[in-house]
């Protein structure tokens, strides 16, 4: 656990330096079950002495899942994928689109949690192919790298960044590396902070006529956020035990 905390803290501290040498640090995760709620009646606007009031009755118009990248060095929101599911195929396609959109990046560092779709057979095969690794991956559930979630997770990350800047030394041939947060510590994933911003500033008081309307509004908010609000988060956690 301590190694994972040190690794992720190191990435956050050196994200801008890594960016200058052609590497990219991306915090990514899913936000599932996002509801498209349409209010039955219009909100009542602000009046002198009265705050705005929102209609409490609503109609459920469906849900969607979001997969979002938060660019640690710049503070911008990058690739956003939206759809009805969050399968391992959805996650691999999201990672693939992210990588293909920036072909000049020499190495990718994805910070993510321990969800099984983040340690899937499809993801291992994609990482191996993208890194030009001509190796026997084994058989899922039986042998080799694909045998279990533990063996697949051990293949995907590079947990020991070098001291000078942050380059991984355990798997230097991997162009795509995944850095997993410790169990029960997904709050270390910076995109979770941005999800809170999205919920408070848009979703909590949103009024959406359909799932398509919800997705379009989220994407418009992302563009607005990147233009007017985006900046790197000031990460101060050093790995010490949290107290209450």
Question: What's the helix and strand layout?
Answer:
Blueprint: H1 2-20, E1 23-39, E2 58-71, E3 77-83, H2 88-100, E4 107-112, H3 121-130, H4 149-155, E5 176-180, H5 191-203, H6 211-228
Parallel strand pairs: 1-4, 4-5
Antiparallel strand pairs: 1-2, 2-3
Helix pairs in contact: 2-3
What report would you give on this structure?
With 244 residues, this protein is α/β, with parallel strands linked by helices. The protein has one domain (2-225): Nucleotidyltransferase, domain 5 (2-Layer Sandwich), CATH 3.30.420. Helices cover 33% and strands 20% of the residues. The chain has helices spanning 2-20, 88-100, 121-130, 149-155, 191-203, 211-228, and strands at 23-39, 58-71, 77-83, 107-112, 176-180. Strands 3-2-1-4-5 form a five-stranded mixed β-sheet. Strand 2 and strand 3 (77-83) form a beta hairpin. It starts with a helix and ends in a 16-residue tail after the last helix. The mean pLDDT is 88.
Kindly, what is the distance between the CA atoms of the first and last residues, rounded to a whole number of angstroms? 20 Å
In N-to-C order, the SSE pattern is HEEEHEHHEHH
By CATH, the architecture is named 2-Layer Sandwich
CATH class call? Alpha Beta
Question: What's the pLDDT, averaged over the residues?
Answer: 88
CATH T-level fold name: Nucleotidyltransferase, domain 5
| Proportion of helical residues | 25-40%
CATH superfamily: Ribonuclease H-like superfamily/Ribonuclease H
Main sheet makeup? 5 strands, mixed
The number of strands is 5
Low-confidence stretches: none
- Sequence of strands across the biggest β-sheet: 3-2-1-4-5
Overall tally of domains: 1
Class of secondary structure makeup:
alpha/beta
The value of Rg in angstroms is 20 Å
Please report the number of helical segments.
6
Overall spatial form? globular
Beta-strand portion reads 15-25%
């Amino acid at each position: 656990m301590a190694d994972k905390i040190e690794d992720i803290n190191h990435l956050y501290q050196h994200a801008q330096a890594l960016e200058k040498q052609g590497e990219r640090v991306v915090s990514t995760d899913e936000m599932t079950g996002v509801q498209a709620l349409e209010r039955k009646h219009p909100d009542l606007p602000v009046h002198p002495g009265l705050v705005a009031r929102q209609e409490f009755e609503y109609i459920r118009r469906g849900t969607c899942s979001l997969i979002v990248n938060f660019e640690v060095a710049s503070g911008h929101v990058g690739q956003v994928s939206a759809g009805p599911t969050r399968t391992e195929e959805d996650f691999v396609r999201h990672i693939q689109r992210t990588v293909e959109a920036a072909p000049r990046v020499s190495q990718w560092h994805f910070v993510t949690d321990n969800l099984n779709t983040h340690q899937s057979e499809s993801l291992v095969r994609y990482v191996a192919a993208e890194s030009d690794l001509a190796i026997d991956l084994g058989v899922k559930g039986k042998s080799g790298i694909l045998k279990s979630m533990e063996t697949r997770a051990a293949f995907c990350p590079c947990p020991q960044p070098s001291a000078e800047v942050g380059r991984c030394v355990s798997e230097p041939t991997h162009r795509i590396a995944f850095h997993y947060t410790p169990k029960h510590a997904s709050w270390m994933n910076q995109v979770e902070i941005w999800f809170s911003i999205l919920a408070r500033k848009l979703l909590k008081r949103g009024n959406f006529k359909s799932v398509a309307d919800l997705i379009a509004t989220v994407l418009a908010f992302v563009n607005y956020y990147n233009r007017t609000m985006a900046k790197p988060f000031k990460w101060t956690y050093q790995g010490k035990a949290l107290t209450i």
